[in-house]
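Researcher: Last one for today. Full complex below.
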Amino acid sequence: MSTVEVVSERQKRKNRSRRDSRASYYWYTIPGILAFVAVIGYPLFQNVKTSFYKWNGYGTPRYIGWKNYVDLFHDATFWASFAHAAEFIAAMSLVPTVLGLLFGALIFDFVSPYFGQGWTTFVRASLFMPQIIPITVISILWNWLLSPNTGVFNTVLKSVGIHNPPNWLGNSHTAVLSISIMLVWIQIGYTVTIFVTGMGRIDPALHEAASLDGANWWQRFRVITLSQLAPEISIVILTTAVAAIKIFAPVQIMTGGGPGTSTYVPAFFSYFNFFTTQKVGYGSAIATVLMVILSVLAVAMFRFQNRKGVDL
Amino acid sequence: MSNPVESAIGRKIWSPNRGKQNLKRRGVSSWLVFATVILISLVWLFPLWMALVNAIKTPLDFLHHGPLALPRHIFLKSIQAFWTDVNFPQKLLNSFIVSFFVALFGVAISFLSAFAIGIGRIRGRYFVLGLFMVAFTVPQESLVFPLYHLSQQVHLYNSVWVLVVIFSVIYSAFGTYMLSVVLGSFPTEILEAAKVDGASPRRILWNIVLPIVRPTMFALGTFFFVWVWNEYLIPLVLLADNANQTVSLSLGVTSGQYTSDPTTQAAAALLGIIPSVIFYLIFQRTLSRGVTLGAVK
Amino acid sequence: MKFNAKKALRVVAVASVAALATTAVSTGAHAAPKKTFNIWWYEKGTAMATTWNDALTEFKKAHPDVQVNFQLKTWAQLQNAGNALLSSSSAPDLSEWNKGNATAGSASQANLLTDLTPYAAKYKWDKVLVPSVKLYGQYTNGIMGAGKLYGVPSYGEYVSWFYNKDMFAKYGVAVPTTFAQLEAALAKFQAAGVPPIALAGKDYLIVHLAYGLVASQASLQWVRDFQAFAHPVNFSGPEWTFAAKTISDWNKAGYFEPNVSGVDAATAVADFQKGTYPLLFGGTWLDQDMQAKATSFKWGKFANPGKLSVGSAGNLLVIPAKSKQKDLAAEFINMVLSTKYQNELAKLGGLPIAADPKYVATVKDPVALLTNTVFSSIVKKQGLAMYPDWPVNGYYNNLLAAGTQLLSDNDVAAYEKSTGDFYAANKP
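Model: Here's the assembly. Have a good evening.
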């Protein structure tokens, strides 16, 4: 018997067993899919259905066809809200990703090897802390920071000689920026946590070899760390970008959409119609459009990520 | 790193003793970086410091000296008042039940789905994953009304368990995605060997995959725990009675339509933060360890 | 690693057992099966809260067979989830409810509230609920002002100027009685280097100041048009323009705090209470806080000069349609409306609607006296213009966002357009 035959025999058996067992793996998706259908799928279907009705949430809904969608496309506030959401992608996704990589590398390459585990834990815990604070609490604390006359930021700015510091949340040009700064503060903990852990699995030999070739820290960071962290980076960008477009509570609590409509975002706009003006049908239409856009975006990033080698 | 399989998939992170063993010699640049990083950490902690300082001030002290000044003397009445007004231990228990079971069930659902997707590589796995992605992207406020009516029909309205069900599912969308990526990079040699030996999927799940990804699942559970602790909108609508409400809802007691008292708010803020901080400190090592996405090249 | 996890779990388990034990002890008392009566309100630390609590104590004594379950709710929950709560299986038997079209109005339209007309007849509430008070509880198709009685107001509230008597004396300023005098007073303070008005552009204070200025120019007919859609309202008309323009002029003249559009209510109120600013335009809900914190100077109140003032009856007591104890609920409402508790409200500095005038005259408490005197001057003069956010759902958010914007760019036309468009787009 030749080796070739042995191999092919084994191969066949393996293939068969693989095909057989593949089917049995389907059972494992059942809890997830059932739960999804009951808790997300059905409400989602209801939501899409409601978007074709005029309804205040409690009376009898009245069918109005595509009217909510037609209105939506002529609603300047809706489009403006998307523009703001795009700005929040920077604050919740891009900036925290960049800073997270940088802080992460500093922690991993300097604090941990030179100063030890205790300090590393302290730094990581500090950066992660905003992640675990309820947003209602965050808003109270940040109002003290951003208050234009008595707030911490402007007190500091005045003391270093800036006599006309920004009016933060009180000015339509700086309101988005102010919330953005807060979001960066919140988000860093998430990105740093994921990146530092990711750095742990990069083979130290890569860095050592580069050092021997005379590469400095910045070069090693750029060439080795960034490329090795590709999967983490794409996951972080995907999850935070989706969160940014869905952003709701920070806006509702910090500005309620004002001044004017300068901080309106789609999720807030949808909430506002659901709960405040009680135009549930219109709110459903906004939510449906938002969801479609997000799903398309998520799938696109998902495929991109797949090509980048995050295997499934 | 005693576990050879862990090493095999490259989870060589963060040996806890790393620092103690041999620290590198500190030069000027490392001190500079250290100073910067510590400064950043302190800046990050500053708002918490404000919560602490103002929670133990008298209202008049706050009025005349602002949020930045240190308290003239320690005043614990605001904290006591909030504690009794909202029956804080009860809220704590409710929050704990919800967070704990969401972490448990959320991770379990995620793991089962991710097992089929990442290990089983079922046909249509992209479709299943895509389905879960929808759950991850859907804005919560669009689910509130249907979930409200649904919870009435199944008599789960006004019960902490309704939150357990809802958030386990919502979060498992994210969890499935994360774990699928981790399991997708599971060393194929190990799996192939097991399959050749005729191991059933159930045995592969229990004896091979589960032990290895347990830290990752633990970390995921920690994330879930903390996230659900801070959920606001769905609990606000679905929990009618104070006796069933969670910590994050109880914070609303500190402000009326037109009135709010800063020192009471700070006290509530402090009490709202402390449980999460304790929880984080207990679990931070797991958290730092498990989120490794495990992608092996 | 594994050890840590286990240890952590053990800690958590011990903690939860301890917590469970605590609850077990605290809930053990409610064991006996009785008729239950669930009552909610969200007043906290106000004269109403104290009065209602006392009434509830008497109520419990009168009904030993009834298990009374009181819950202190939050304004935020009733505002955001109010109708959901009322239509749920957990609806209370009696509750405080926000007045206005968007809240009580919308709940009445959805058949979530009990029509109280039969109880009003039974207990002869019409004697105490004069038409100008009763209308706040009456709704037709969700619009306040007439129709069935869905809620009972039991107190009043209004917005007026708080002023720092010490500063007025120091700078030789008299309490103004006309708008011209008010502006002269503001100019005098400003000339002396004291910005006169503590205002929050980021919170409700700007909404009330703007509407206060509208009301000072408005007739009762205009208020009916604006609140109940009797006739179309012109948002570029004299009332609305006067308000927007005055705010913009005062802002340009530096009469408000610097960066006023970014100041929040707590800061503005604190600025007045510290004695930094001589004036604050605020509601009666601030009385108790003022008394506690504005201690370093003497303060007083005066009504905004002009035709009408911002104010109305206070929040309603409603009986949800799902209430299982409607008779008991009505009995409690009747207690709150009784002279005994209305007098108590007056004594504590609240604004009763049915107190004995002879008793009110004997009240010595300065804040109570002040509140009631200014109120009676407002009522005597002409009346109340209600609140600006009642006509359409979500108007408060719009008025606030537009007001913040007005303070940051002084653009009167944009303010009028934004507020007018929102009103037009959302009116029924």
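The two ends of chain C are 63 Å apart (CA to CA). Chain C is about 50% helix and 10% strand.
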